[in-house]
From TrEMBL:
Residues 409-722 form the Nucleolar protein 11 C-terminal domain. This is NOL11 protein. The gene is Nol11. Residues 1-335 form the Nucleolar protein 11 N-terminal domain. One of its GO terms (molecular function) is RNA binding. SUPFAM superfamilies: WD40 repeat-like. It holds the Pfam family NOL11_N. One of its GO terms (cellular component) is nucleolus.
């Protein structure tokens, strides 16, 4: 039995997605850690991602005018990365390297098709002419002559394995409509060529393979909507130059009159394969979907519709599918269990209805779509039961159905309900005992609230949203529209809480929050509720009891406050700190900026957005960072007091990032001249201070050593001269 589990977005693929994969994704390869993947775009860039955090760990690009021509891979033995650009130029670097112009470079004598990296066998390089070299052999003489094995043939696919502690490479070629398969064993330097048996009126679209017991199983996805299997033994006793490989039908990609036009596929285990393609029924529009098939019993196990479209590429690592969906790279986890006939037809006694969260993207579904999705899950549950089941069993299933259907049906019923009834029902829904799909239910509730905000501009359930964010373990990917609406409503308190609690906020949203925080006037901030825990210990807070007359609309949202929300000029107010120094911003704005400092980010993807920050706001932000830097440096442990106060490392990182983004502008601004001068003097003084400490470091260590050696029991005075 196989099932698709929860899904999430790893990264965006467009210019605004923060990954720079606007040209599309060339390939996805495993990284140095099981939780890492290496993305190569169809251009100049390779990016290392940590999948569980949905955050980039590193990004490297070749120069303008150069193009990466085959997927970047990781050498698992040395933890180095290997790329080929412009077909012949080899680059090798490590995590600490930033500029690829300064890393190892070798120009090869032939064009490279692909590099395969084996966990215990090192990288293997396949050239477009069919020649194969291990990376070690190739680096001994990069300009060595590479033989041309294939003539007028084009390599369509390749894969590498380890068998009996030796690398084995398989690749498929095409010439004039005929397909050939080559097997290369590197240690014994043997090469076998085969011709693939032709299929009338159809041709191979994609290949995949696995090796077991000295036999390669080659699976071929054909244009006639079928998957064929070819067995190729590694032990060849014949010297026949070209053998014809016969194939057998493994699977027909059709079910209930619908045919799946597959574009790519992967092997999950000996009984299951996953196919990405378009499912079309007669007279209906085709729909792209991801499917899992049981090859043993010729059944479709599960499928997921992909309405935003895909690129046709599918990768699978560590029980996770990776594919493009619209303008994002999506990850879906899956599980495969032991294949049995009962599981294949959905009649396994202990089989359960798949969780709703495994199949529904709450961020893209409307109210009606939510109901349809829940109802489809209900129909799956009903069909999985035998028609001859006992009445008691049907009763048990019927009792379980309302929990599955109630969320979607409830949202549709409440679509036109009053605000009070709408929120009361949602609160009751959230107060129920947690179920396996409880997180999906929370996401559904937030989506319903946000949808009502969009349809009714006066409606904004600020307190309800705050309660959800503060009491539930949410993430940005579960409710991405939440922060967008909060930015639109200028709800800085909700944005502050999201920045503190969400671990996966995109850099573009972090920048938008920073810009809003810097733009809002101090007078407006004094009227609203902001969490001051991060600043209360180092900034004096004085509350002015001023009466503010406002017109209250639905849920406390006040549109009139927008009149004085923005600063037209940089604030002139300064606020005295606990020890007499002055802070360039008020305590409310300082608390909001501290939330930004705590947010996780990648410098590579934040810097382009930060360059768009207006100069006056950049200067104000730098003044506050300089103030924090001075405050941190006053403490022996360089730590500010308070809860969630920024660390000196966070402050210094943001200072460097801001100066990188705006240094030219800062130099030209008269109001920034004194600030830059003070910053320069302070840093220089610190460098001198630490330099003096380094000079006496050896003497201090010697004193410590002497102190441990000498355990005097009597009172004594010692004078030690430091030279």
């Amino acid at each position: 039995m196989a099932a698709l589990c929860e899904s999430f977005t790893l990264c965006g693929l467009g210019p605004s997605g923060g990954v720079g994969l606007g040209g599309g994704l060339l390939a996805l390869e495993p990284g140095p850690d099981p939780d890492h993947v290496l993305l190569t775009d169809r251009g100049r860039t390779a990016t290392l991602f940590k999948v569980s955090d949905q955050k980039p760990l590193g990004c490297w690009s070749v120069k303008h005018g150069q193009i990466i021509t085959c997927p970047v891979v990781c050498n698992f033995e040395t933890h180095e990365y290997i790329a080929v650009h412009d077909d012949k130029v080899l680059r090798i670097w490590k995590n600490k390297d930033i500029n690829l112009d300064k890393v190892f470079k070798a120009t090869l004598s032939a064009d490279v098709y692909r590099i395969h990296s084996l966990p215990n066998g090192g990288p293997v390089v396949l050239f477009k002419g069919g020649g194969v070299r291990t990376l070690d052999v190739l680096l001994e003489a990069p300009q060595q002559e590479i033989e041309n094995i294939i003539t007028d043939e084009v390599i369509k696919w390749s894969e590498a394995f380890m068998e009996s502690q030796q690398p084995v490479l398989i690749f498929a070629t095409e010439k004039d409509g005929e397909f050939f398969v080559y097997i290369r064993k590197l240690k014994v330097n043997s090469l076998h060529k085969y011709k693939l048996e032709q299929q009338e009126l159809s041709k191979p679209l994609n290949f995949t393979a696995y090796i077991k017991n000295q036999t390669i199983t080659l699976l071929c996805l054909y244009s006639n909507d079928s998957v064929y299997k070819v067995l190729i033994p590694l032990q060849q006793n014949t010297e026949e130059e070209e053998q014809i490989l016969s194939k057998s039908l493994l699977l027909n990609l059709s079910v209930s009159g619908s045919v799946l036009k597959g574009t790519s596929f992967v092997v999950l285990d000996k009984d299951h394969i996953a196919v990405l393609g378009s499912l079309a029924a007669s007279g209906e529009e085709s729909k792209e979907c991801l499917t899992i098939w049981n090859t043993k019993f010729q059944t479709l196990q599960t499928s997921k519709e992909l309405p935003l479209g895909t690129s046709g590429q599918l990768w699978c690592y560590e029980e996770k599918f990776f594919f493009t969906h619209g303008k994002v790279l999506t990850v879906i986890m899956y599980k495969c269990e032991t294949s049995s006939l009962a599981a294949a037809v959905g009649k396994l006694k202990d089989s359960q209805t798949p969780e709703v969260s495994s199949f529904v993207n709450w961020n893209t579904l409307g109210d009606e779509e939510l109901v349809v999705s829940f109802q489809s899950q209900q129909s799956v549950a009903l069909k999985s039961e035998s028609r001859m089941a006992l009445r008691s069993k049907r009763t048990t299933v019927a009792k379980a159905q309302p929990d599955t259907v109630s969320v979607g049906q409830l949202l549709l019923n409440l679509k036109d309900a009053s605000t009070t009834a709408f929120e009361d029902e949602l609160r009751q829904l959230m107060s129920k005992a947690q179920t396996p799909d409880f997180q999906a239910t929370i996401g559904c509730v937030i989506t319903a609230l946000i949808n009502r905000c969009k349809t009714n501009p006066k409606y904004y359930p600020r307190n309800f949203l705050l309660q959800i964010v503060q009491t539930r373990d949410l993430s940005y990917s579960l409710c991405p529209d939440l922060m967008a609406v909060a930015l639109e409503k200028k709800d800085v308190h909700l944005l502050q809480i999201c920045l503190q609690r969400f671990p996966d906020i995109p850099e573009e949203i972090t920048y938008a929050c920073l810009k809003v925080f810097l733009s809002i006037s101090e007078a407006y901030l004094q009227r609203i509720d902001v969490n001051l825990e991060s600043v209360i210990c180092y900034i004096d807070i004085e509350f002015n009891n001023k009466e503010v007359k406002t017109e209250i609309v639905e849920n406390g949202f006040n549109a009139e406050l927008e009149q004085d929300i923005w600063d037209t000029n940089t604030t002139k107010e300064i606020h005295r700190t606990a020890d007499g120094e002055f802070c360039p911003v008020g305590p409310q704005k300082a608390a909001l900026l501290n939330a930004v400092l705590h947010s996780a980010y990648s410098e590579t993807f934040l810097l382009p957005h930060l360059k768009n920050l207006p100069a006056q706001q950049a200067v104000l932000f730098l003044r506050y960072l300089y103030y924090l830097y001075v405050k941190c440096s006053e403490k022996i442990n360089t730590t500010l007091p308070g809860i969630c106060s920024p660390s000196i490392n966070q402050v210094m990182d943001w200072m460097c990032l801001l100066l990188d983004a705006h240094f030219t502008v800062m130099v030209m601004l008269p109001e920034a001249k004194e600030l830059l001068s003070n910053l320069h003097k302070f840093v220089r003084a610190q460098v001198r201070f630490y330099s003096e400490l380094n000079k006496i470091e050896g003497s201090l260590r010697e004193l410590q050593r002497l102190h441990h050696q000498k355990d005097s029991q009597t009172y004594s005075i010692e004078v030690l001269e430091l030279i």
